[in-house]
Amino acid sequence: MKRLKQFMGWILISLVLFSCSAPVQADSNIDPKFEAQVLEVIKKNPQAILDSVQAYQRTQQDEQRKAQQSFMQELQQNSKAVIGQSPTKGKGKTVLVEFSDFQCPYCQAAAGTVRQFVTKNSDRATLVYEHLPLTSIHAQALPAAKAAWAAGQQGKFWEFHDGLFAQQKELGEPLYASLAKSLKLDVGRFDRDRNSASAEAAITQDLQLAEKLGINGTPFFVMNGRVFSGDVELAALEQVLNQAQ
């Protein structure tokens, strides 16, 4: 079983599914002899290997589809339980869930569109932000997420969120401190909160939800029984919203 997982990981390592996507990690301790055997098997049985990979992908996709359908059903039936303590904006019945990474350029591009959408439709839709820092490719994604979470503990999540995306190229400690001061946060509390076990737990919870749903790229959206990813357009969001009315 371990060798099978190594084999599949080795084959799928370069697979990219989303705009900003965490790479599939293969086991770094793969035996060179085993790796040579894998290459020989691929060389001799290319179609069989392709069929196996496709079957594996279909199984994974089916499991993810079922998890997403269950999540969307729960979102429609009991949205408050699903939202929990996640940051929200708007007061509408239709819920737009966004999984995002503050260092992802595609998330930055989508942020402006999502802001327009919520501002224009605040009485019809509610935006829910879920953290999905892709730490394997974005070194500042997790620190930025923790800083935004800490700002949220003082009622300034969305202002901090906007500041991070507006100055995405400057992500780092100086920016987090500067934003905290400009938003008149209690800086001492801000630093304690972003370095706390509570911040870690909150973001881990979001990451676990993303993993359950098979989401490994950002930005990713769920609304009105539909899932979509990438740099969305305002018209597309409003079309999905109108279908919910």
Give a quick precis of the structure.
This protein has 245 residues and is α+β, with helices and mostly antiparallel strands. It has helices spanning 2-12, 32-44, 46-77, 79-83, 105-120, 141-152, 157-166, 173-182, 187-194, 197-212, 234-243; strands at 20-21, 88-89, 94-100, 125-131, 217-218, 220-223, 226-229.
Q: How do the strands of the widest beta sheet line up side by side?
A: 2-4-3-6-7
- How many domains is the backbone divided into? 2
Order of helices and strands: HEHHHEEHEHHHHHEEEH
> Could you tell me the number of beta strands?
7
Helix/strand-derived category reads alpha+beta
Strand content: 5-15%
Keywords:
245 residues; alpha+beta; Glutaredoxin; 2 domains; two-stranded antiparallel ribbon; 11 helices; 7 strands
Describe the structure.
- The protein has 11 helices and 7 strands.
- Mean pLDDT is 84; it is low at 12-18.
- The protein has helices at residues 2-12, 32-44, 46-77, 79-83, 105-120, 141-152, 157-166, 173-182, 187-194, 197-212, 234-243; strands spanning 20-21, 88-89, 94-100, 125-131, 217-218, 220-223, 226-229.
- With 245 residues, the protein is α+β, with helices and mostly antiparallel strands.
- Helix 6 runs antiparallel to helix 7 and helix 6 crosses helix 9.
- The strands form 2 sheets. It has a 5-stranded mixed beta sheet with strand order 2-4-3-6-7, with helices on both faces. A two-stranded antiparallel ribbon has the order 1-5.
- 58% of the residues lie in helices and 11% in strands.
